[in-house]
Amino acid sequence: MAGRVANLPAQVTALLLFLACVSGSTDSRSREIRGAPRIPSQFSEEECMAIKEALKGAIQIPTVSFSPEKSNTTALAEFGEYIRKAFPTVFNRSFIQHEVVGQYSHLFSVYGSDPSLQPYMLMAHMDVVPASEEEWEVPPFSGLERDGFIHGRGTLDNKNSLMAILQALE
Ligand SMILES: *[C@@H]1O[C@H](CO)[C@@H](O)[C@H](O)[C@H]1NC(C)=O
Ligand SMILES: *[C@@H]1O[C@H](CO)[C@@H](O)[C@H](O)[C@H]1NC(C)=O
């Protein structure tokens, strides 16, 4: 893809936060959501596969926050390496500045061509609440695809947003 940026706001900042999100999580098992494929058809089959695989890979890294003070920092560090591999273009453009904040969070500043426009910020968090295997129909960190859904902790909250933001940027 050409590296040209047209009419982007002056600065788009994507802050991928590692936030303690230890709170009650809703059980979505009872929900019956069925429908058409969610990925728009302008993507080739290979691109759709790559997008899905990228999300599955993100789910498989157990970035658990056990409490506000205790997190799996190994997993958080691994996640940092993962996004570098999954989104090589994001990390290889002079108009995208990447900073690590507070050791594990990632701040991307995307500089557009018109500095007079309003900047905006997109945010998502990469950590998840703990998940006990017994309460899950599939292993919670498997990223298993079944019946047209990708299963796992973080698929809805909030690695979906995180991966979508970076995927779009990529
Ligand atoms: C922490 O994450 C690593 C992977 O990055 C994993 O191997 C390990 O089992 C996790 N530890 C806990 C306590 O979940
Ligand atoms: C980006 O990739 C090109 C090769 O496609 C390489 O020459 C260049 O050094 C890379 N730049 C950065 C900032 O990694």
Q: Can you put this structure into words, describing what you see?
A:
- This protein is of the alpha+beta class and 170 residues long.
- It has a single domain, classed as 3-Layer(aba) Sandwich (Aminopeptidase), CATH 3.40.630.
- The protein contains three helices and six strands; from the N terminus they run E-H-H-E-E-E-E-E-H.
- Strands 2-3-1-4 form a four-stranded mixed β-sheet, with helices on one face. It has a two-stranded antiparallel ribbon with strand order 5-6.
- It is globular.
- Residues 1-8 and 19-32 have low confidence and may be disordered.
- Bound molecules: 2-acetamido-2-deoxy-beta-D-glucopyranose (2 copies).
- One 2-acetamido-2-deoxy-beta-D-glucopyranose binds next to helix 2.
- One 2-acetamido-2-deoxy-beta-D-glucopyranose is lined by residues 61-62, 64, 72, 74-75, 78.
SSE inventory with pairings:
Layout: E1 11-17, H1 45-59, H2 73-86, E2 96-101, E3 105-111, E4 120-125, E5 145-146, E6 149-150, H3 159-169
Parallel strand pairs: 1-4
Antiparallel strand pairs: 1-3, 2-3, 5-6
Helix pairs in contact: 1-3
Distinctive features:
170 residues; alpha+beta; Aminopeptidase; 4-stranded mixed sheet; two-stranded antiparallel ribbon; 3 helices; 18% strand; globular; disordered N terminus; binds 2-acetamido-2-deoxy-beta-D-glucopyranose
